[in-house]
Amino acid sequence: MEKSVYRDENLALLRLLKQCRVEAGLTQAQFAEVLQRPQSFASDIERGLRRLDLVQLRDICHALNINLVDFVQRFESELERKDG
Known about the structure:
Elements lengths: L7 H16 L4 H7 L4 H8 L7 H10 L4 H16 L1
Helix pairs in contact: 1-5, 2-3
Protein name: Helix-turn-helix transcriptional regulator
InterPro entries: Cro/C1-type_HTH, Lambda_DNA-bd_dom_sf
Pfam family, one: HTH_31
């Protein structure tokens, strides 16, 4: 089985995270500041260098003013659109 970091689904996740950050009107630096992390943390997430667990994803969604469930639904919609 191929590692998840190389799967199309992971690339879709990274694109959606960045899209949500941009929609929230935040730069990477502002986003990182909300999370009380260095800017490099935000960059590493968007470039796929940092793996996220569910708790971190929930914190990120909170920082982006999006509900975790809504985020997952958007993610699933993106995957269905790509597959369909």
